[in-house]
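Lab notebook, bench 4. We co-purified these components, and the gel suggests they stay together. Before we commit to crystallization screens, I want a quick structural picture of the whole thing.
Request: model the full complex, all chains together.
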Amino acid sequence: MTARADEGERSADRRLGADVVIDSVSKTFRRSGRRTVALSGVNLEVGAGELVCLLGPSGCGKSTLLRIVAGALERDEGTVTVGGRPVRGPSPDRGMLFQTPMLFPWLTTRKNILFGPRAQRSAGLNERDDPELDAEADAILRTVGLAKFGDAFPHELSGGMQHRAAFARAIVTRPSLLLMDEPFGALDAITRLRMHDFLLSMWDQYRTTIVFVTHDIEEAVLLGDRVAVMGGRPPGVQEVIDIPLPRPRDALDADTEAFLATKRRIRAALTV
Amino acid sequence: MAGWQPAGFGSTIDERTLVDEDFLPVDGEPDGTELDERAGRDDLAAYRRGRRRARTRRLATGAAGLVGLGVVWQIAASILRDPVFLPSVSQVATTFVHYFNRPYPAQGSPLWYDALTSLRRILIGFGIGVGIGVTLGSAMSASRVVRHLIDPVIEVLRPLPPLAFIPLFIIWFGIGELPKEILIIIGVTPILAVTTVAALDEVPEDLRLCARTLGASRLHTLVHVQLRSALPGILTGMRIAMAAAWTSIVAAELIAATSGLGYLIQQAGDYLNTALVLSGIICIAVIALTLDACLRGLLLLADPSRRG
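Here is the predicted assembly.
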């Protein structure tokens, strides 16, 4: 898959993130003789280092599209390239975060974070020794505010802490693209606001490309550079809307006039 | 007992979960350090101490229950005053100690030898049964064809009491060691196959995908994520199967054996040596509890959320 030879090249463009080109991707599910068109001729380009939200109701194909970009689902037609390389199967270059944190319950926070680097080491993708990895884990635990919880098990952490640990685990392998599938959907509203601030500050530090799936208009406007509104029959990208709000943003921006105007535009696009 | 649920999958936040610590990631934010201290390691240690204390209390209460049973027994025995019907605790203890290292005349071997014989049969049969059961379960979980092929066989075998096979096995294999071990295997294998399938099916697909996007190979994911994630469920199946194995072996020894705790109990009963019957039963209880404690220890190692 990812050859060791282009390790250097990858680490160079990682800080900027990779661009994503989705070109006329279609996907049809066949289950017990019934065909369901999940995506039809989807085109979308995401620039390097951009944060694009995929917004739409349940069943609009946004999660399907995300999983195709991740390489977890085969597409029927079309091409997907990330950083100029066609997507074939899952890769550590494309990190993924889910609605639930998906931490490994038998590993401490620190070992969860080091799962990726260690798995890659045993696959021969890196030759980093334990002290180096431990130092890296310490650094990232501090960054996500879990410095004192490296030895805690996932069930001992609160919901927000679990999500921060999951973020640390995904970012420690320095993916050039982060795919987030409604990552804060199961959190309470207040923790969720904190996680938005957290994500924005992390994105500011790591500058990776992010594709963020959500069904929450406010979340999409607050986080995204652009919002791809999905839906329709057959499902696809209806409209891509620029978010004209300045950065850095935080939760307080949700009360401004410009924010509300953008929300109105998106709501109009959704009801088409 | 609540079903095993990996932390974070269902976002179950209950009283066992630490209170959320506010977190402000903005650089140079003075609140950040203050809140970090509040969320300090001391809190985690104190939280774990509290859970350990609760566990000690639970164990102490359980021990009190057992002592209570002994007291009721002793009182009943002293009222009845009939050692053939119900010997007292001290009579049983004396008999236990007496025959532990001396052969019972009707039977020819001391208690420890019979205990070891039964234990050996259990461990061999259980070990082989677990091996076959986990292998079958993994294959059934991995392949739809294998599942559809083997599922009916297991569903037919599972509700059958292994004791029903004893006469058949005597015809086929005589009364040696082989039929007893096969009897245990027949009881253990379906339990492990069913629990292994259930445990592997419960591993979320996204957990597998998560490991793959972190750079783990297919094999690494299978061993270190899928099987590892199913391990607590498999160990729980082993605990259930261990109890079933004891039922099978003692019954087999009662009916067709020349050694083992079941045989000893049978012989002692024939001669109305009630204290020795009870000694044999207590011996089974102690060994079974010890083996179960070992499995529970492994379960605690495998599933941190059960600790404390």
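Chain A touches chain B through 56 residues (CB under 8 Å). Worth comparing against the SEC data before the next meeting. Residues 189-206 of chain A form the longest helix (18 residues).
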